[in-house]
């Protein structure tokens, strides 16, 4: 078992050893599965001949009769589509897609595959080659204007002599914020900002939240029956390919689960077929010895499985030393949501899911913290096609909390269930 020194910003954590906290880049699983990207630039280039262009009837329909006019929103949606090919892989960076359009034809496409790799604009410009000159670049997020691990994309766009840049949303990163737009304008490039802005913002809501607040976006998930009873399960097919739960596991960088899931962790993995098989970090919370089957477990977490991090309270450390191998343990003075989110932030995570299943008494304190301290931003509720006579709610009443009005409540069908999604 590895016990990790928590980040220094977590004041209430007591480190057990001097092992430094792992950064995202030192997570071997997340890196290992991405090596295919590192050796072949072609992995990010999507030939416009086969994927887009005039052979696409939808694109053709977007053009005006003289064939000269193009639809900015259409190409921005295409950029978003490209960006999402790296869903779940880019944290702490945002997902970004870019298409280069010349004379009404897509001549270059690219997306940002992961932190440390070139940005979407670089791949798209490389794909377009000389055709980028006098073309329009559509990019879902404002191009960067600073030297980070890669040179600024503004310079790449200027050097390629693009005529116009269409931007989905301004970069919330304070070191970029609008300076990319200014740099392009100063170079004489025509810049349009805010095309399909809501779509672009929604795609990177976790990145934006992390950038603005210093914490990852936290979403709560649970299931209820049609008569409003809490139900401790997910719907049939939810964890299969295309199921909503499988997709959530793809979208989120970490999932917080009750300790009663410890023996079932390998089964909680996304089945989505993507470029890379990347799974969220599984955070298990053991708040006291009675609630924690982990301390008595002799199981070993599979090396090849998702990364498992156990958060435990200080008084449990003696017992937890006898627990399973392959688990990183973080010891807190007292279990609290703020420290767990700080840990996730330090690891570069943008999106965290708190899943109310199993022995949810383990998670009661996190739920209370989330509501009381306004650390919960989002909720996903599965309404199962069931009428239950028993409410399986195990958490104490929180009637003392002020009632909340959810924003942007939306619903969709998933298998036999209905999903509700809204924001606090
Ligand atoms: Zn860039």
TrEMBL record:
Monofunctional pyrimidine deaminase involved in the riboflavin biosynthesis pathway. Also has a reductase domain that lacks catalytically essential substrate-binding residues. GO terms for biological process: riboflavin biosynthetic process. This is Riboflavin biosynthesis protein PYRD, chloroplastic. Residues 70-192 form the CMP/dCMP-type deaminase domain. It is an enzyme of class 3 (hydrolase). Its cofactor is Zn(2+). Its EC number is 3.5.4.26. It holds the Pfam family dCMP_cyt_deam_1. Pathway: Cofactor biosynthesis; riboflavin biosynthesis; 5-amino-6-(D-ribitylamino)uracil from GTP: step 2/4. Residues 1-22 are annotated as: Disordered. Keywords: Hydrolase, Metal-binding, Zinc. One of its GO terms (molecular function) is diaminohydroxyphosphoribosylaminopyrimidine deaminase activity.
